Amino acid sequence: MNIAVLGTGKVGSTLGARLTLRGHRVLYGSRTPTGPDRLDHRSAVTSSDLVVTALPGNDVLSVLNEIGDEALGDKILLDPSATIIPQTATEHTGGEVAVRIQTRFPRTRVVKTLNTMNFAIMVDPLTSVPAATVFVSGDDIAAKTVIIGLLGDLGWPDAGIIDLGGIDTAAATEQAGSLYFAIVRALGDTRFNLAVSR
Ligand SMILES: NC(=O)c1ccc[n+]([C@@H]2O[C@H](COP(=O)([O-])OP(=O)(O)OC[C@H]3O[C@@H](n4cnc5c(N)ncnc54)[C@H](OP(=O)(O)O)[C@@H]3O)[C@@H](O)[C@H]2O)c1
């Protein structure tokens, strides 16, 4: 697939590198477009079928607003973002990013996933922990099927993927940010995952 990864930080570069390794064509969207695969946000989106918002949660909507409805259209949008209080980088502010994106861009097919783990675990679910769960939320079934395929490319086994339902369920995983940081503080480590056992 042609994938636009918006943001070239930890999540963007980690997902972009792995998706490239798996044969996808990745174009990065950046505030500092400097090369053939590092474009301005709108150019990256226009040339791609799927968009990843690897951006600070509080900035996602303003970046998407600048890109505009026409460029985003009915593309699939994978949103792994979280809203973090910048001063502490530890507490979740409770903002529901994915629902706000879906409400603002009703044609765009938003899928929330990968937001309950550290960036390294996003592409290393099997070797780091014996059991790992990744949640998926989104209204469009076909878009979720595509995203579940991409999760497979990232190394996630089908058994570890839980489809929570519509995009409204993304709020549940976004609010789990506080739990994530509490675990980081307790363990002093980010190499863990949440796993649903039954
Ligand atoms: N790090 C993790 O382990 C982790 C885990 C789960 C979820 N998340 C979430 O995933 C998202 C990305 O996290 P990250 O760790 O990759 O963050 P990061 O390392 O800070 O990278 C974010 C990137 O977004 C762009 N950016 C920064 N400020 C911006 C602004 N004001 N407007 C537009 N673009 C801006 C920058 O790319 P350019 O300079 O190229 O524009 C920056 O490199 C966040 O929402 C985060 O909460 C992170």
Automatic annotation (TrEMBL):
InterPro entries in UniProt: NAD(P)-bd_dom_sf, P5C_Rdtase_cat_N, STEAP_metalloreductase
Source organism per UniProt: Streptomyces lonegramiae
Alphabetical UniProt keywords: Oxidoreductase
Domain Pyrroline-5-carboxylate reductase catalytic N-terminal span(s) in chain numbering: 3-82
Classification via SUPFAM superfamilies: NAD(P)-binding Rossmann-fold domains
Protein name: NAD(P)-binding domain-containing protein
